[in-house]
Amino acid sequence: MEGYVQAEVMAKKWDISSRQVQYLCKMGKIEGASKFGNTWAIPENAQKPTRTGMLKPGRKPKE
Fold it and tell me: How confident is the model over 21-54, as pLDDT tens digits?
């Protein structure tokens, strides 16, 4: 599929684990991501989601 890449490719691009990319896809955080069988197809121009959730007490935000 042209214009789409697998989770492993985006993981390297975003410097996170491929499992984290799969989780973000599952939670609907990556716009345009679709699952085909066991593989996620992610648009090449997808933006890495930002963390907007609450932090656990005593934790400092990443900079």
Answer: 999 999 999 999 999 999 999 999 999 988 766 6
3-state secondary structure of 61: coil
CB distance 55 to 61 below 8 Å? yes
User: Domain range spanning residue 32?
Assistant: 4-42
The DSSP bridge pattern shows strands 34-36 and 4-5 to be unpaired
Residue 32 within a domain = yes
pLDDT tens-digit readout, 3-22: 999 999 999 999 999 999 99
Residue type for 40, please? W
Q: What is the number of domains present in the chain? A: 1
Would you call 1 helix, strand, or coil by DSSP? coil
CA distance to 5, 57, 58, 61, per residue, from 49 (Å): 16, 22, 23, 15
